[in-house]
Amino acid sequence: MSLKRHFLIFLVAANFAVPLSACATLQRGPVGNPNVPQPAKAVDLTRYAGLWYEIGRYENGFELGCEGVMAEYALRDDGLVNVLNTCRQNAVDGPLKTSQGKAKVVPGSDNAKLKVSFFGAFYLGDYWVLDRADDYSWSIVGEPSGRYLWLLSRDPQPDDQARVAIMERTKALGYDLSLIRQTRH
């Protein structure tokens, strides 16, 4: 594991208050997509801002046991994006864990690629909006290694039609659907 990736996982895990005894679970998971595509569409950050519910993800150490996962994005005056991640530990009504960070747009990416920091000036995390609904009702987020994937919706319980559309698009992007862990809300 690269030092950069190890440091990122440590920082994110620390922000989710994962105990040090769980460090063994912070190993990288399997590659669910060996050929991660470039983002399909430009992103209007004003429309992307707001509350998102995680409806599925590739399991990872820094979200181990998380249910009721939400991410809230807000535009800042300095051009950055505030990031507030929350989860309920081990149950939808479990203890609340939060992690606050910021993100900056990768130049030339039409706002579809961001670098995320949960620790000061270190922008180590990749956040790629691989695709999204035209009305910004759902998005598929990944990163270049193909080990991390998040399926997001504006609704914590999207209807069957929306869920099918998200899963079909995720599969078309080359992701292994069998690795997706459904998030309970």
Describe this protein's structure:
- This protein has about 180 residues and is α+β, with helices and mostly antiparallel strands.
- The chain has helices at about 5-15, 45-50, 160-170; strands spanning about 50-60, 65-75, 80-90, 95-105, 115, 125-130, 140, 150-155, 180.
- Strands 1-2-3-4-5-6-7-8 form an 8-stranded antiparallel β-barrel.
- A hairpin with a 6-residue loop joins strand 7 and strand 8 (about 150-155).
Main sheet makeup: 8 strands, antiparallel, barrel
Unreliable residue runs: 1-26
The share of residues in helices is 10-25%
Q: What would the principal axes of the Cα set say about the shape?
A: globular
The helix/strand class is alpha+beta
Report the β-strand fraction as a percent range: 25-35%
What oligomeric arrangement do these chains adopt? single chain
Calculate Rg over CA atoms: 15 Å
Mean pLDDT: 88
Q: How far is the first residue's CA from the last residue's CA?
A: 32 Å
> If helices are DSSP runs of H or I spanning 4 or more residues, what is the number of helices?
3
Q: State the total count of DSSP E strands.
A: 9
What string, H for helix and E for strand, traces the elements in order? HHEEEEEEEEHE
If strands are numbered along the chain, what order do they take across the biggest sheet?
Answer: 1-2-3-4-5-6-7-8
